[in-house]
Design brief:
By secondary structure, the chain is of the alpha+beta class. It has helices at 5-10, 16-26, 32-45; strands spanning 51-54, 57-62, 67-72, 78-83.
Length: 86
């Protein structure tokens, strides 16, 4: 199955809880707008070969930022962002 990166980026959505979760996991103090800009730019910079669909989620690995973005594949809702353990 092919992953359509542009469809994912165009349809992204967020819950109120995810903003706090992202700040906590990445040890940041970003505003909602800063988080949305960070996610958007990370997805735009990440090559499609680093988008993986497993089960009901997309996992987008960005080596440059050292993180993995988890996105629900049905709703395109951001679930979380985790640091890559090296």
């Amino acid at each position: 199955m092919s992953i359509n990166k542009s469809k994912i980026v165009e349809n992204l959505c967020y819950t109120e809880l995810v903003y706090g979760r992202i700040n906590k996991k990445l040890n940041l103090k970003f505003s909602k707008k800063q988080i949305e800009d960070f996610i958007f730019s990370t997805l735009e910079k990440t090559e499609e070969k680093y988008f993986l669909k497993t089960g009901k989620n997309f996992y987008v690995t960005n080596i440059e930022n050292n993180n993995i973005i988890t996105i629900n594949s049905n709703t395109f809702r951001i679930i979380t962002v985790d640091k890559i353990n090296k």
